Please model this.
Amino acid sequence: MRRALTWRTCWTLLLLALAPLQRAEGAAANGATGADPGPASLPADPAAPNELYLEVSVNAESTGLILRFTQAGKRLRSSVANLQQLGLDPARLVAPGQTEVALDAIPGLSYDYDAARQSISLQVADDLRAPYRISARTPAQAPPAQVTPGAVLNYEAYAELGQSRRAAIFNDLRYFNDSGVFSNTGTLNLGAGQRQYMRFDTFWSHANPETLQTWQVGDLISSSLSWSRAVRIGGVQWRKNFQLRPDLLTFPVASVDGTALVPSSLSLYVNGVQQYAASVPSGPFVLNQVAGINGAGQATLITRDALGRSVTTVLPLYVDTRLLASGLSDYSFEAGAVRRDYGRRLFGYDARPVASASARHGVSDSVTLEGHAELAAGLYQAGAGALLRLGQAGVLNGTLSASAGRSRGAQVGAGYQYLGPRFSVDAQSVRASAGFGDLASRDGSPVVRAADRFTVSLPLPAGSSISTSYISYRTAGAPPSKIATAGYSATLFHGLFFNASLFQDLRQREKRGFYFGLSMAFDNNLAISVNSSRQNGQSGRSVSAQRAADFGGGFGWNMQAGTAGGNAYRQAQLEYLGNEGRVSARVQGGDAGNASSLGAAGALVLMDGHVEAARQVGNGFALVSTGGVPDIPVLHENRQIGMTGRDGYLLVPNLNPYGNNQISIATEDLAVDARVPVININVVPQQLAGVLAAFPIERYSAATVIVQDAQGKPLATGLPVLHVQSGKQTVVGFDGIVFVDDLLEQNQLQVGEGDNACTVRFAYVRPVAGGLPVIGPLRCSAGAARGH
Model:
């Protein structure tokens, strides 16, 4: 009886506790359906908003969020921060700038409030939602470029044997450190009573990848645009240098958008080739950085949900790499003295100063503005131009320049270009008045008074194409020329490539010619070619076969025979490519006589206190160091380039400056006592400079120690072992075997713990031939633990 009374009492108390909640839920339900709520559900002040915390779903998809809403009468309001958290774009809401907005006042948004479940379901139009943004091109930006102070001398020597007996040695000397690069190039000519050194360019340059700016002092080439001309100057240049960021796309890239009804997988195809795949949530999305084409193309977007239902969207694209992306600018300024007689005089600089500047700016993804100016004594020249993309129909360009001073005149140019999958058109025309001048004309190079170019190319099936062009050219002091050309190229079968071309001078009918050739490349670096030509009444033909040296080094050869200008010739060349450079020998024979020559090309690099003979280096390189260990294979982008020499060094030439370059070493053949903390390094060199890639290869100071108890039996497996000198701990293995690292000349091991601990002392000598020695068996003294 007492037990029944206890349960009845509890049930009564529970009903009394739930009654207020039931009345509140009933009142909320009545309010949601439009019925008059009961007095108990109303706040004390009818004008006061009712605060609600509701579970939210958007377009029938649960968000997993519980957010705060306010109810005033029959209307629900939400904060703009809530709506932004749900993926709505605040800029597209009604009454921008407010912190709270009524849901039924937003066009394109409706809702269903379920008071019983304390939830709200929003139906949102795509126009209100902030699109999910992804990028089809996400290259990893390279780490900051590094430089190891040093110097490099690129050289190329050529010597003719026989009666002429002359030689030439080209050199490219550089010194580089954190402040920049100093470079000097020139050629030493020897033979026939001649001993002359000709300097080409000498300059110092400094680049800042963070600001994309480059300073150069010394010999340089002035900036120019497609409608202006450059000159050689000795002076200073300050310019924007996009080469400092190889991952940066400077031209406008396409963006495509779409909508996914439910979470789906997304695939992007450009001209039928898959470029990107990802997953997208429900709602609108924007796919940026769609690259991989130049000219007109077609993007195909395919979204596929979990049930396999797919939606395909086809969008046209047009990309022109000559344009600058919106907001992007390019510029260059230089001042100094014009250099004359380049290649004939060491120091041929004009005494009068000059200056020039070029600039480009992307006003939008469809409009790029250009400007160029030149200043010299008695010459003032300036011009402007623009490139305008006509949607999917190509790009128009126009320029206008004027000069004043001693050369008064104007130059105007216009052009159109369309690159498409079915045909391509390129048309350009330039006209200049008789008085127009620029820095190049002031230096003796005449201005082109009229130039026209019109080219049409048509891709054909099976990888073939045909093109035709018309070129007209007129300049002061030279007869005008008008030339028409036509060409055809095709890949026939098994890699056999055929190309043919012909030309006709429309002013001098007797000047015409043709050329055709066949070539084929094989998998073992072997290539053969046959060609025939005729120009201005003279015929020529040749047949050649060559095998290039392997990337990792080896022999290569070339043989060629034919006729040129009515004279027969034959030649053969043998070359060897090694870690230290390239050497070659050539013999020639024919109607004009016989000749032979020798050549050598390579580099000497001073870095890390070491001089390394290597192949010629390019804009960036790395010196690999393996800590003095020789004969270690070195790989560049998973291709073996060579093996370290007897000092443990190898130079890796021709790396991408300011870009990622993977350098690694192969460790399969290292001795068992070798320790290699790093086997792969991402090398990012600076322009014209080198960096040290260190792979420290160390040797273990380790041994296998066999430990026994006082009766000569192996100690128990699993006993703790402490190497007293290093503090490292290990355990006893089977048969009393203990592996111990970081050994010194004298070592002590403590085996076991407490009263059962024992001690082992032994000496260690590193084996001369390498390997891990076995020491023992040794007796563990002072209370050794018993084995099983």
User: Anything to note?
Assistant: The chain has a mean pLDDT of 86. Helices lie at 2-32, 80-85, 439-442. The first strand starts at residue 50 and ends at 58.
